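FORM 12-B: Structure-to-Sequence Request
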């Protein structure tokens, strides 16, 4: 099958027609996509930015003299004022002004590292994580391990990559005597696009857990209302939301969970008073405790510009469009069959649009049912200027489930001395990785059509 005509697409997804003004915005604000003939399908990797965002940011930089914040001199105050205005805008955007601090970090990973190094992991602590986590969350287990805390994973189902609710419930109930319990999960999988039920936040908290919500893959297209769900810690990167600037993320900390974080050191900007005559110090009593050194004060104003841009775009309309496009893409990919009747593409995770975002993970199969080499698909896509992503996406849990890698096989592998991806593939005799296709703010029908046509060239 080749992609549907636009008219057929519209008759199958009539809501899409009402979102056509986004095509106008795309042409005006993201012109390089079409003038350079790029098919961008890696929005979960990074979002794209509008020209208006860059212009607005340059206007700010050219309108004032900025000095290093943390002083009362006028240029310093100018920078401080913009940083604090942006901080308020971030908290307002997530309906978090009353209950949360916003710590500016360099990215979601740095936000997560702060939790790793400051959560009171010790022999009385336990860390529970979902199988479906980015490595920047998985890595926190090494802080837990070093400090004597126990940790374990809660599984997701192989069929739809959603939480195994019964097991998670058991695991949440299983540690009544632990003093500190941290549960970490992503609001949306960066691989399968599954949106995990945010209701687990309240359920975990009722059972004495602190909750770390990794919202990095969720907030680019979904609304996170922190007056409704109240995780203790939230991590995110702004370039994933609106493309520009890179190098800034946030850690949102619920005020009631702030003192629980035990910062292991102090640095410039984080102390209210420190002495070298006696080795004592007082940490600042607000978000600055975790903003080490000088924040990225020239780029931070662009975060407010990005948030304003998202609001101007009308995210509800963007979601309507992405819902239609993702469903169209999944159904079209599933319908591609070789002459033998063998499907060309396997879509991992849910095949419908219920509780999922706009990220799809797939593998390709030949007419004989053998998996096709992913790097060949990726190279072919590169040649057609199609940006997709191949690999494990820093989420080994989902990869191990999708490729049916057992713990016995992995233990054997890790006791061997081979350590590259290809060594692993060879050692296990099993394929690793998949191809991720992710839609976002400016995706349109033409992007999907080009990708479906690209896939059909592998049909035999
Ligand atoms: C769900 C999730 N968490 C965390 C991260 C880490 O984000 P960053 O690389 O911006 O630190 C990513 C990046 O892809 C992600 O998708």
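FORM 12-B RESPONSE
SEQUENCE OUT:
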């Amino acid at each position: 099958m080749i992609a549907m005509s636009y008219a057929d697409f519209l008759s199958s997804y009539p809501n899409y027609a009402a979102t056509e003004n986004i095509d106008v915005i795309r042409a005006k604000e993201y012109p390089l996509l079409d003038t350079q003939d790029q098919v961008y399908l890696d929005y979960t990797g990074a979002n794209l930015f509008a020209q208006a965002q860059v212009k607005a940011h340059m206007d700010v930089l050219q309108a004032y003299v900025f000095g290093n914040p943390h002083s009362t001199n006028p240029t310093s105050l100018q920078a401080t004022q913009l940083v604090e205005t942006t901080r308020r805008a971030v908290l307002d955007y997530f309906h978090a002004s009353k209950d949360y601090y916003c710590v500016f970090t360099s990215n979601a990973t740095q936000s997560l590292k702060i939790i790793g190094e400051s959560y009171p992991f010790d022999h009385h602590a336990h860390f529970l994580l979902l199988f479906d986590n980015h490595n920047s969350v998985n890595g926190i287990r090494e802080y837990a391990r070093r400090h004597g805390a126990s940790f374990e994973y809660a599984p997701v189902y192989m069929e739809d990559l959603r939480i195994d609710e019964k097991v998670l419930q058991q695991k949440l109930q299983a540690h009544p005597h632990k003093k500190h319990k941290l549960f970490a999960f992503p609001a949306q999988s960066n691989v399968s696009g599954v949106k995990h039920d945010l209701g687990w936040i309240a359920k975990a908290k009722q059972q004495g857990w602190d909750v770390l919500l990794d919202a990095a893959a969720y907030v680019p297209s979904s609304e996170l209302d922190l007056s409704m769900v109240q995780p203790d810690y939230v991590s995110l990167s702004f370039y994933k939301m609106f493309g520009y600037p890179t190098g800034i993320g946030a850690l949102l900390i619920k005020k009631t969970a702030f003192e629980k974080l035990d910062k292991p050191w102090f640095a410039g900007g984080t102390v209210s008073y420190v002495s070298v005559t006696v080795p004592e110090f007082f940490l600042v009593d607000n978000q600055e405790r975790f903003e080490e050194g000088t924040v990225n004060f020239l780029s931070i104003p662009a975060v407010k510009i990005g948030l304003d841009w998202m609001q101007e775009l009308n995210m509800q309309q963007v979601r309507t469009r992405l819902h239609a496009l993702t469903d169209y893409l999944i159904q079209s990919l599933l319908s591609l069959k070789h002459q033998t009747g063998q499907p060309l593409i396997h879509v991992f995770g849910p095949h419908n649009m219920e509780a999922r975002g706009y990220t799809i993970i797939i593998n390709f199969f030949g007419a004989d049912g053998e998996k096709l080499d992913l790097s060949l698909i990726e190279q072919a896509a590169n040649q057609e200027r199609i940006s997709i992503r191949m690999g494990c996406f820093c989420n080994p849990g989902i990869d191990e489930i999708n490729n049916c890698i057992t713990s016995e096989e992995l233990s054997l592998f890790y006791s061997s001395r081979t350590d590259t991806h290809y060594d692993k593939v060879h050692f296990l005799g099993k394929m690793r990785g998949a191809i991720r296709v992710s839609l976002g703010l400016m995706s349109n029908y033409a992007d999907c059509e080009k990708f479906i046509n690209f896939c059909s060239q592998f049909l035999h």
